[in-house]
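Quick one - inputs below.
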Amino acid sequence: MWYKRTIPLVIVFVIGVLAFAHNYVPYPEADDFREHMTKWFMIIGGFGLFLGAYSLLHMHVSRIRRMQPGWAYSAFVFIGAAGMIIVGLWNDGYGPLESAPSTAKTWFDWGFDYVQIPCSATIFSILAFFMASAAFRTFRARNVNAALLLVAALLVMFGRVPASESVGAWFGQQGFFPKIADLIMEFPNLAATRGILLGMSLGAISQSLRILFGIERSYMGVGD
Amino acid sequence: MTAVDNTQTSSSSRRTIELVVLVGLVTAFGIISALVRFPLEEGEKLRDVIGIIIGAGLTFIFYSFLYRDNPLFKIAENLYVGVALGYGAIITWRQSLRPEVYDPLFRAVTSEAFWHELSYRVVPIVLGILLMTRLSKKHSWLSRYSYGLMVGWGAGMGIFVVTDSYILKQLEGAIRPLQKIVTDPDVAANLSFFDQAWPVVGSLVILIGTVSVLFYFFFSVPHKRLGSGFSRVGISYLMIAFGASFGYTVMGRMSLLIGRVQFLMFEWLKIKQ
Amino acid sequence: MTRGGFTALHFLLAAVLATVALCGGCMRKGVRLADLRAALPDASTVRLYDRPSDDGSALILEWGKVDDVVEGVSYAVEVAKSADDFETRQFKTVKVELTEDSLKSADPKYFGFSEANKKFYVATILPAKLFPPAGAPELTADHIKKLVADDVLSKEQSKLILAEMASDTPDEKLTDEEKACRKWLRRLKLYPRVMQLADEGKLPESKVQRAIRAMTDETADDALSGGDKADRRWLALLAAFIEKRDTKQRDQAAKAINKGVYYVRLAATDGRKKAYVLQDREKVVYSGQARVDTFKRFKLNNLVFALAFSGIVLAFIQIARRNPNLFIRRIAGLEAVDEAIGRATEMGRSVYFVHGLGSMGELATIAAVNVLSRVARRAADYDTRITVTNINPIVMAVSQEVVQQAYTEAGRPDAYDPDDVALSATSQFSYAAAVTGRMVRERPAAIFLIGSFMAESLLLSETGASTGAIQVAGTDSEHQLPFFITTCDYTLIGEELYAASAYLSREPRMLGSLRGQDIGKAFMMIAMVVGVILLTIAVAVAWFDADWITHLVKVL
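Output:
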């Protein structure tokens, strides 16, 4: 069916070619085109959020309806979302409790500052523990690659803490460990990153071409 | 059988202990918060103090996940997902839908303004609505029109961007003389052999590394004999690079943890710095 | 010696000193006319032309560099709309200092890397900047008088506003009251624009009245209520509309200005005197017109590389179509896909597919969705439940389409449940919390972490590893690779991620594109090695110049 398969692929091709070609043209229209597309994606993304919110809430409704294990916890999703949306819309974020808008913090800001920020900051900081356990996991692997990785990690990490200078001072080379860390970052790290990026560039170009020419269309749910 | 029974009793007794500990910790948290934060000090607002206590509570709850999943974590997790969703919805409304769709179309100041704004937005609005067809099983294929646009844009732009920022920039960095010429004769005379040789070694290390890592990614060459050795060099480079990057991040993550501890100490417990 | 004589001597001395100082000052300040003339380039080297590779907003005046110019000399480029305007002194001046930055070689983006560029100075002439389009009408005291006469402003209010109009105190030094007044003035500044719209018939009388009512109301924003508040908001919308309209009109006017013919003369100057470029004792007037060019020449290297690599890949796709037996080496991470799904089937547990943070326009996300389609198809074949966690709604929509199709193709469309491909959360760390929580509770047998990740990568993969699942990760975010390497069983690094879908499909044309990538890589390897050798030799022996090699790959 051409309107289910062909038209979307034609859209992909035409927009793709325009997206590629407009970069080489100094016409002011080319810049306008890019600005418009950015705005378009913002608008489509706005609609997308409705879809996403529906999907997220639907999943939790199903959990509650099917009484899956732990279904009661899903209620908190609704409490959190409803609370934020109500205070966000009501009185422009000032909520029902403030009589007139003032320059003070809104209830919407309150929800952000005292729920969202502590949660994200705490989860982010859990990484400190996870880095240790990930390193230990690698240590247990006991092969050459893991050893290389760990040694490099230790050297760079140690070179970046102030203590390394006092350790270096014991044998008269204060800047020894920081220097080692710098050397690793400057030479092997740069080389590998460059190799990864160069390889990736070709992979990306090749994938883009497969998509533009309709060879790869599995993202449309259309198998080959 | 007995063994199974044993584990069951031990796990159920462990659960009871855990529950007791949990209740104890929550009570302790409540008492400490009440003692430290109440009565309110001059200039403090009740809602801010409650907010800080909630924030501190959530901090502890998320750390409790490090031990194991527990009811409080489940509550906090779902609440957080909900709050983030609500926040995202309001922000999307305020920053994208209201200024880009609602205000220009539904609150257009003049009819000229309305038609002018509509002409720019009619396509994305239609595409946005088409995206909603995902909710129907029968017409969901219509959403392909919307995301086809994004995929096409991403693919086309991708070729250009990748060529600029990966291929050209990296080749520019890679292709340079092994040894920079030293034009100042006084400086050149003072350079030791080591000083002169060192940059050459460094450049060679980078060149060999880049080439061998690229070789590692070869798909149509069997990694045998010489190739195997060369790609092994590439893997070694990759591992050292990953290790370096890992080690480089550790301090940053530690400072996040310190930040949380500082929040608990200075803001929740109000310990003076 | 008398007292008077002593003073006279002093006076004389002072006069002599002053004269010397004055003369010295003159000599330092002024440059002799002959020296100015000597600084002028030969008239034959002066050229006025359209700036290449641009959007038609600039003209370039170029002239030969003159050696041994006396200090204190700079160039003045005089630009007029017609040759007669020079007589009436209606011209604008662009000043060009004699520095490296003014040389043609300082801007390789437009002029290239030619060695000869070091012998020319250039002046960039931007007509729309020199002769800017007329601005919007400004608020004047007359407007305020009219508002008072119309009884919308009181006398006291008008005094306040007039005082504010005259004030030039910076914002940060104002008291709160004055700040509010300045805000109010900002609203009132719309008045002439609103009246202009009304005169053009673009704004009906009732709306004009509403606008005037809203802008003359001096109440602060947060003290408003009811209808006044609605009026204030409406005024903000009107202001936004007017601003947009103005910008558009200004842009159009600027374009028209840029299209005009401009007349230029060149002079050497010391800041006061000028010596013009002459021919037959007449000041030479050059004329030129900017135009919109069709191609950014400075992006030529990008275009050549992009087309060359595209050509190679497309050629190999064609070759593979005719000769489908291509050798592709084993990629462990991708061989593991079947193993992982098989294990999930045996254990009767689900397979997780965890998307990264990327949007649908990102290449890594597109790659992830393509991999998902292969994974979902295999899971559907094995009748294993697959759960896809999403953070981006549009990626979710695509994933739903892909998974639904996989089930349909496997002959079991009813087994597809959209709740399995739902949005897990909407922000980075709530996503991490939701997905890790689910991993711990549902204990999937296999986890695929594919796409572009940020700091949440380790949170997800470490939790996954602690549940004992087989993990296959793939990302192009080079900073997250170390974390996947340390915690996942298999990691697809960069290019392998992009190749994954092709590899899993086993379709000849797709595999052909991988072969094409290899040729591209070989080319880059050779280019790097040869480039480094040539440049090193060039530096070592200095017999030839090899800078052109770096220029070839320079991003401008």
